[in-house]
Amino acid sequence: MATTRAGDTAYGADVPGQLPDYADAVLEVADAIPEGRVLAYGDIAEILGEGGPRQVGAVMSRYGSMTTWWRVIRASGEPPPGLEDEAIEHYRAEGTPLVGGMLTGRRVDMRRARWEGPGA
Known about the structure:
Elements: H1 21-32, E1 39-40, H2 41-48, H3 53-63, E2 72-73, H4 84-94, E3 98-99, E4 107-108, H5 110-113
Parallel strand pairs: 1-2
Antiparallel strand pairs: 3-4
C-alpha cells in the first residue's frame, strides 16, 4: 500500500491514513503534469496501464484536491464539472492553450496542451 498524502484518511485503504495503490498512482501522474499542460482521464489510465477514464475520474473526484486537479480533464478539453470557473483561472495563469484564446476560451486546446507523459 502506498504512503498517504498529508492528512488523508483514505476510503478503501486497508490502513487508515494510506491511499489505495491505484489512487496514489493516479495522483503521482497528476502531480507530474507540468504547468500549461493537461492530460485526459483516459490518458492517465493509459500511462498506468490499468483502469479507464471512469476509474481515474473516481480517484480525482475523491482525492483530486490533493493535487493539481485542473490539469486532469475530459478528452474534449472541458474542465471538471462544477469547477469550470476555477479551472479556467488556473489555465489562464499557467498559459494553458484554450480554444478561442486566452481571454474568452472556456475549453483547453487538447491538440496543443496535451502532455506526452513521463519520459517524453
